[in-house]
Design brief:
InterPro entries: MlaA. It comes from Testudinibacter aquarius. α3 crosses α9 and α4 runs parallel beside α6. The chain is globular, with a radius of gyration of 18 Å. The chain contains 12 helices and 2 strands, in the order ααααααββαααααα. About 5% of the residues have low confidence. About 60% of the residues lie in helices and about 0% in strands. It has a two-stranded antiparallel ribbon with strand order 1-2.
């Protein structure tokens, strides 16, 4: 491995581990810590009242109403298929070898027989149905690494050091590392599709007494649910997933 590539891998790893070492819960009070709440609320107002209604929502509406369903399915399948190798590696790092092999087999089967992933051939087998992507941040969370401070990022949405620096590590794995600037297209397809799937749920957020708190708590509840593979947070109320909430901003 070249020196530059080595730095590219280890720097996000170190940052994700050290910055994310703190918990989002105050151990003495049991309350959610939100040291950047003033900034976060300002950014939430911008995202919710400006960025979404004037940018992402119109694009998502056009995607839902005018793009043919076969084309949408093929594009989303290709994008999701590219997440499988990173999920495979992160499962291995957890010691979840059987789950890692599901991601591995899904990737090569759909890539070879599914026309580069446009068709989800692997799901025909009950044992190879999609179980959701597994990010480096999820893997760190499974070992008890804290999320770090909650941040509402303009034009992006909810973020924490563990999860989002972890995504930088995911980008160092093939095939994502081989995409280069083309990875923007992959994430754009996933973002627009997720936002389109949320259009019918917009009233839930609109009727909330405090939309900022609703999004923040749903973000952390879904993180717990995802990190624990569904073993925690099973009583989450009807709300949005981590990635879906991110895409509404």
């Amino acid at each position: 491995m070249k020196k530059s590539n080595s730095i590219k891998f280890w720097l996000p790893l170190i940052l994700a581990t050290t910055i994310g070492a703190c918990s989002s819960i105050d151990e003495t009070t049991g309350q959610r810590q939100d040291p950047l709440e003033g900034f976060n609320r300002t950014m939430w107002d911008f995202n919710y009242n400006v960025a979404d209604p004037y940018l992402l929502k119109p694009i998502a509406t056009g995607w839902k109403e005018y793009v043919p369903q076969p084309a949408k399915t093929a594009l989303v399948n290709v994008a999701n298929n590219l997440d499988e190798p990173a999920s495979f590696v992160n499962r291995l790092l957890e010691g979840e070898f059987s789950k890692a092999m599901v991601h591995f087999n899904r990737f090569w089967i759909n890539s070879v027989f599914g026309l580069a992933g446009m068709m989800d051939i692997a799901s025909a087998s009950e044992g190879l149905r999609p179980a959701g992507s597994r990010s480096f941040g999820d893997m760190l969370g499974s070992y008890g690494v804290g999320t770090g401070a909650y941040v509402m990022v303009p034009l992006y949405g909810p973020a924490t050091p563990r999860q989002d620096l972890g995504r930088l590590v995911d980008h160092t794995y093939p095939a994502l590392s081989l995409l280069g600037p083309w990875s923007v297209l992959k994430f754009s397809v996933q973002a627009v599709d997720r936002r389109a799937n949320l259009l019918s749920q917009d009233p839930i957020l609109a009727q909330s007494q405090d939309s900022y708190l609703t999004v923040r708590e749903a973000y952390f509840q879904n993180l717990e649910f995802k990190v624990s593979d569904g073993k925690q947070g099973s009583e989450i109320k009807e709300t949005l997933s981590e990635d879906e909430l991110k895409e509404i901003d």
